[in-house]
Amino acid sequence: AGLIDYAGLFPPAALSMKDGVANYHTYRSSSHAWVLGRLIVPVARLDELASTITESGLPSSPWHISALAGTNVGLDAMTIASWNADHAHAAIVDVVEAKATSVSEVDVIANAFDASVTTYVEIPVHDDPSELIAEIGRAGCRAKIRMGGITVGAFPGAGSVARFITSCAKQNVPFKATAGLHHPLRGEYRLTYEPDAPCGSMYGFVNIFVTAAFARAGMPEELLVELLGEGQASAFEFTGAGMTWRDYALTLNQLAEARGSLATSFGSCSFREPIDDLLQLGLL
């Protein structure tokens, strides 16, 4: 539930605000609405969101928004507070996402936003992120990892991803993922929606969330790296009691606990693509 935060305004979809709002409204009314999370909107475009909602007469009940902060998080915090005061009847920003590359930047972000919003801090993972994750936890925030983009070089190595997830699990810091997670399983896919787009190896979101659950259960990083690279649907089995990957098993309670307190959601510029793939695999 609430797995996919809709980021249709961002590449490679890069939709207009009008089309992004229309899509989100449609998905909220679909049979798979329970999988849908928040609408992701840059703080700089919140006024555009408000005018688009007003013009369209939507929604019937308030939407929950995740706002992407810019470099001036203090100003963005004031903008969000003012925007929420004016538009809470239609939509409310209750999640903020910002970027940091140092402990001091984490502290600036944490101090800018109050307890009315959940704050995710996106950090680089090429180097050991444990210190940053520890500070994110101490500050009462959550971590965020970028899993890819529209170029091959935007995808972090599996070892870096496994290290990030393991560190979050050990330090009890919840995280979300974003970018490059359109498909359930690891594989070769087009990096954009252009007909001549280059292909690259993309992570699967099932891999990411199962990896988080196994990391919480204590699986060593070298096995987590293998799990992140698993591209065979037959290697996974889901039942009413839990799931297995190869010879390793998790109970339903372990999966639920990992989703509830560790791996929370992922951002995707497509909602239909992940859903359609899950349906094709028989997982929905």
Low-confidence segments: none
The overall strand count is 13
Mean pLDDT, as a whole number?
Answer: 95
What count of helical segments does DSSP give? 10
Q: Which sequence of SSEs, written as H and E, runs from N to C?
A: EHEHEHEHEHEHEEEHHEEEHEH
Shape: globular
Outline the fold blueprint.
Blueprint: E1 4-6, H1 17-28, E2 36-42, H2 46-56, E3 63-68, H3 73-87, E4 91-99, H4 103-112, E5 118-122, H5 130-138, E6 142-146, H6 158-170, E7 175-178, E8 187-190, E9 199-202, H7 205-216, H8 221-228, E10 236-239, E11 242-245, E12 248-251, H9 252-261, E13 263-268, H10 272-281
Parallel strand pairs: 1-2, 1-13, 2-3, 3-4, 4-5, 5-6, 6-7, 7-13
Antiparallel strand pairs: 8-9, 10-11, 11-12
Helix pairs in contact: 1-2, 4-5, 6-7, 6-8, 7-8, 7-9
Notes on the structure:
The structure is a single chain. The protein has ten helices and 13 strands. It is an alpha/beta fold. The strands form three sheets. An eight-stranded parallel barrel has the order 1-2-3-4-5-6-7-13, surrounded by eight helices. A three-stranded antiparallel beta sheet has the order 10-11-12. A two-stranded antiparallel sheet has the order 8-9. The protein is globular. The mean pLDDT is 95.
